[in-house]
Amino acid sequence: MTKKYAPATLRNRQPIRDVLRGELATTGLLLEIAAGTGEHAAYFSHAFDNWDWQPTDPDPDALASIAAWREEDGPANLLPPLLLDAASCVWPIDRADAILCVNMTHISLPAATEGLFAGAGSLLQSGAPLLIYGPFIEAEVQTAFSNLQFDASLKARDASWGLRKVAWLDELAEMNGLERTARHVMPANNLTLVYRKT
Fold it and tell me: How confident is the model at residue 51 (pLDDT cuts 50, 70, 90)?
């Protein structure tokens, strides 16, 4: 198995960890959606050793990378990766105490984000968080020029990709029994949005 590397992981993992420390309960099962290379899963499972960490991804190569990170550097609470397409109406897990999704919404079909909220609405119990990290567009906040450029480059690659509007995510949350409880400003013009099951 071959480990993959994502340069952004080293830049954002500590700021995301700091947000998680303030938003997560003492213990539980965290479901990571679109875990990608598996670097976050390896890092966060060490940082939150009272949590069982369940990484998932729809891509077989990503699953192999996550498994390689787990084999080399994974603590006991890092679970084997599961195949999960957020856009699917069938998920291979029936409960979670928290859900984390990093850098997925802008590089996937809108159906993946819709499925993310539907899944969170089904799996989370009252008060449990869905945390979403990435670049977004806010009606009341001027979008950074670098994010506008990034949005254009994404849409040039795939017309269905692009930075999502926070207002749309808020609507999806309401449709699925969640509400936004926090907005954390992150480095490099990113945000972590926290939604909790009502």
Answer: very high
